[in-house]
């Protein structure tokens, strides 16, 4: 790590750096117009970060990063060309625009190609409180990582090894501009502390961990608390059992429950829909979930992990329902997929923003008590989800529940069902959410799934 790396975080010059990126973007748009493009868009980004890793009390890696990148897309009517570069020198920038134009001249017309409509561009840019850089140098980061691992290794005598601890901080600046005259500037920060530990011996060893992540340093858990939580989770997995094949209630713990929402998003995204590769084709207006269930998208949430006043095409974002009273309200579309489907963009070019899943239950403990007997899933493995049929089959680990209490850990099992049926038979969503994700959901209880083990 060179002597200038700590200076990356010494002063907040983000406003000047954003103006520099905006100036580059405007010059490239002018160049594209001069070369005959009817429309053009430019995305510029600059990322800076520090990442340290320790293991068994020793420093493993210290990495300082400073990356920049730029992408240009031009349209000649309905013909599209794109090119990108990490070199922001003037000669390279001009060559990138020229390359994009050359590609566009040789592509076929695509009726859905083009910028989002000019009338949809964002005009208001509120402060969404996503910028909290951490003035952290390498030695401070290493001290935090070592304290985290030490707390975890010392928490229980059964912790015999470590996969290490890490501390990371990052800043990201980005500018999106297009030939409608739109220029959008964004800045964000992200920080994390993590620890992974190994307990037991020989074939009985188990690995688990914990991490804390946040926009601001003040949102992170104490490093020692992260280490101790990692130790608790690791020793809780010792001496796992398998299960006989049966159909039982399955409760997805908070940290894995959001994967179910992720499968929904994949199925209602524009790309899957216009390719006819989704089990939720023609589902807007259909009841997919119980009547109490809802999902709200809140892109303008202050201090949200995915807050933004505009999407990846400059379209203004707004709070809106994705699911209301169990009924799917809309798809997740950018302008291209919307045109392919004969619909309008939903302001989701680049993905969804902050999602809030409605809760109808209390804490995890109360949900376990109410479930009585079944499986609590804390880890999912494999990619056994068919997006066309909705068939779901994934490796899992967690805990068997008897009498509303954790009885013993389980692994080497598979849980299976069909997502459409799983959505319809959701019985509860808890109110204990995970702040580390832009999908805010509590634990999710599915009334019945097939659990297959070795017993």
Automatic annotation (TrEMBL):
Domain Metalloprotease TldD/E central: 132-238
Residue ranges constituting the Metalloprotease TldD/E C-terminal domain according to the UniProt record: 246-453
Its EC number(s): 3.4.24.-
Entries under SUPFAM superfamilies matching the protein: Putative modulator of DNA gyrase, PmbA/TldD
Short name of one Pfam family: PmbA_TldD_2nd
Keyword Disulfide bond among UniProt keywords: no
NCBIfam families assigned: PRK11040.1
Enzyme class: hydrolase
Keyword entries, A-Z: Hydrolase, Metalloprotease, Protease
One GO MF term: metallopeptidase activity
Residue ranges constituting the Metalloprotease TldD/E N-terminal domain according to the UniProt record: 40-104
Gene: pmbA
Gene3D superfamilies, A to Z: PmbA/TldD superfamily (3.30.2290.10)
InterPro entries xref list: Metalloprtase-TldD/E_C, Metalloprtase-TldD/E_cen_dom, Metalloprtase-TldD/E_N, PmbA, TldD/PmbA_N, TldD/PmbA_sf
Protein name stated in the entry: Metalloprotease PmbA
Source organism of this protein record: Stenotrophomonas mori
Family: Belongs to the peptidase U62 family.
